[in-house]
Amino acid sequence: MHVIHLSVECFPLAKVGGLADVVGALPRYQRELGIDAWVVCPYYDRPFTRDENFLSIAKGSFFQGSEELHYEVLTEATGSLGFPLYLIRIPGKLDRQEVYCYPDEAEQWIAFQHAFLHWLKNSQIKPDVINCHDHHVGLIPFLTKHADDFTEFEKVKTVFTVHNGQYQGWMSWSKAILLPRFDTWKWGLLDWDGLINPLAAAIKCCDAFTTVSVGYLQELYEQANGLESLFSSEAAKGYGIVNGIDDVYWNPAADKLIPFHYDIESSKSGKSKNKKAFCEKYGLDETLPLLTYIGRFATEKGADLLPRIIVDIFSNPDNKISIFILGSGDMQVQTDIQTLLVAYPNQLTAFFGYHEALAHEVYAAADMILMPSRVEPCGLNQLYAMKYGTIPIVRGIGGLKDTVRDVNEKDGYGFVFPDATTEDAVSTIERALSYIGQQEQMQRVRKKEMELDFSWDKSARKYINLYSRL
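Structure for Glycogen synthase, as requested:
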């Protein structure tokens, strides 16, 4: 079976969030299970593309409206990623440094999807399944069925994976002239509330859609940024498949990015050594429990709650704790945290930005990780944390609810709170502090969570079973 994963993110090419981790791991596990899985992404002017060996394998051109666009397809030559990676470069459109935040994103992603289909057609490549990841490539299920130039792909099955349904790629109908010529009788498949909505079009036209956790699939029926009725009406072709993690890359026993390796049996001493080194580096007290937040400063992540949570935690003299923040995004959140760094110089420190190696160090050193999310389709940070013996403190929603069981439940190994509020987060952190003070109990929980299997192997099999049914 030949499957192509189409995405605008893929680790290590370009990573903004969990989408990149999924696309950078799932195809490799599928190939190990006998599936011929490829990844196709836009070209970015980034270190990976500059440093690695890429070969040009195809060129072509097409009109986007009145503009003629020329594209080139490149492939990573060494095969070091464990799957074939193809990049589509279009001068002026798909050759930039950043993934997002350009004013002509609609034009970029339309060009990417058009070039992708144009290349497949000219090269006589016909996969069995195209797995499209998020709204940036949400027009593909429509175009393969209704675009005049690509009728040969009508029977190719399309699976659409919803990583975050809050972002839908809305664009004015004035952009319709940029699309490949299509059957205009089918315009309603593109429309939602008077706009072209790629996410809505994908759900309407795909053969099946998946969400990145079972819990998130259920939540989309009730909270999908205006698409609740659509997800409900198309529920028969929806599947919840929880994301996995790459347990070769995220493995404290072999992680090249942490100073001291450890496994389940040596986790107590191993984490202690990593914590000591980390706290010395960042001026924190290694004898205190270390809580961390890793991620974007975004409202959906509950990051706006962080400043108040920090103040309330430190305002209680009984809370003996250090906090480390790794993230970027909302500048107001960052400014508020910077102010608190001055107020609590020996208890709080932060790194503003994205830093892959530092994230590994933090997972190995921290005792707890906080995820107060308002929306969390799956969440990977809690999975990475548990692999490294770091206790998750999470809001019970989406994939967090699916993957973290509270210590008060049978066989529990984390701390779960019901609402994304400062009060719930603080009280649960205090509950965790009381719990981890009991070393024997803490070590039992740590071993339990490190033994959990969140590898991609199980999830990859579920995707393959879905492809086979289609």
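The mean pLDDT is 96.
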